[in-house]
Amino acid sequence: PVFAGMNGSAIENFSCVIYNIFLMNCTWQAGRDAPADTQYFLYWQNSRQEMECELYIKDENCRNMGCIFQNVSIGTEKAYFLVNGSSKDSLIQFYDEYIDLYKIEKLMPPSNITVSCDEIKNDCIIQWQRPQISHSNKDKCFKYEINIKYK
């Protein structure tokens, strides 16, 4: 496909991560050949919502280099991301990508961890609640690793 705009003006190194259950952080770098006055704008949509970034992360030149989305709810479908740019000097190429949101979720640690040991039986019981996740309530996708250090 032919994209309108100057070659090398689209953003690079776009990535997003979902954390703390309902926050999403996306970042990018300015196109290497983008004019100095280029400003970028991020939009995303899934089956439930379509929105522009409300909380941009800016660099020292006040250029948008990332975004924090709050109250994100995700399913198992792909979401569409679009970053376009504007400059008074030239047309800026856009960047777009489809992302499986559940694949970019950084999971919280398990909660309510308790340990009770019985010195006579010489055993311990360790219990926890599975971490909350944004996209599913199924237990089957969790594997746990316990690291025990004796003192």
From TrEMBL:
<keyword id="KW-1133">Transmembrane helix</keyword>
<dbReference type="InterPro" id="IPR013783">
    <property type="entry name" value="Ig-like_fold"/>
</dbReference>
<keyword id="KW-0812">Transmembrane</keyword>
<dbReference type="InterPro" id="IPR015321">
    <property type="entry name" value="TypeI_recpt_CBD"/>
</dbReference>
<dbReference type="Pfam" id="PF09240">
    <property type="entry name" value="IL6Ra-bind"/>
</dbReference>
<dbReference type="GO" id="GO:0004896">
    <property type="term" value="F:cytokine receptor activity"/>
</dbReference>
<keyword id="KW-0675">Receptor</keyword>
<keyword id="KW-0732">Signal</keyword>
<dbReference type="InterPro" id="IPR003532">
    <property type="entry name" value="Short_hematopoietin_rcpt_2_CS"/>
</dbReference>
<dbReference type="GO" id="GO:0009897">
    <property type="term" value="C:external side of plasma membrane"/>
</dbReference>
<feature type="domain" description="Type I cytokine receptor cytokine-binding">
    <location>
        <begin position="13"/>
        <end position="104"/>
    </location>
</feature>
<dbReference type="InterPro" id="IPR036116">
    <property type="entry name" value="FN3_sf"/>
</dbReference>
<keyword id="KW-0472">Membrane</keyword>
<keyword id="KW-0325">Glycoprotein</keyword>
<protein>
    <submittedName>
        <fullName>CSF2R factor</fullName>
    </submittedName>
</protein>
